Amino acid sequence: MIVYDIEYNNMLLKSWKDKGAVVKTIFGPINSRRFGKSLGVDLSPEVKQCNFDCLYCELKAAKSVKSYKKILPFKQILKEIKESLKIYKDIDVLTFTANGEPTLYPQLDEFDSMRLKDFIQMLKL
Length: 125
Hints:
The chain has a three-stranded mixed beta sheet. The protein is 30% helix and 15% strand. By secondary structure, it is an alpha+beta fold.
């Protein structure tokens, strides 16, 4: 079981910033038996945006939404992925998540069917 540890994540963010990265949406890396080394991409880092309000959700309760109200620009997400992949060169998988429901992200189809090697090639790392 993987537990999200806010203190550990803050430590990672500090280490990235110390290395010159400007990262808002990226967390991890997390080792997964199933996927290998995973880097998380949070498509809604500032506010919970979800079409459900599940009782078991670890996020604070919030009003359900049908679509994202606050949309992180696709190019900004790509930039932050690129910055992170410069630091962590041995990532096997990118895991897309959100503070809420990642499938509500309006440009999710841009990521659909892209594999990590496609990202690396596209971003010219």
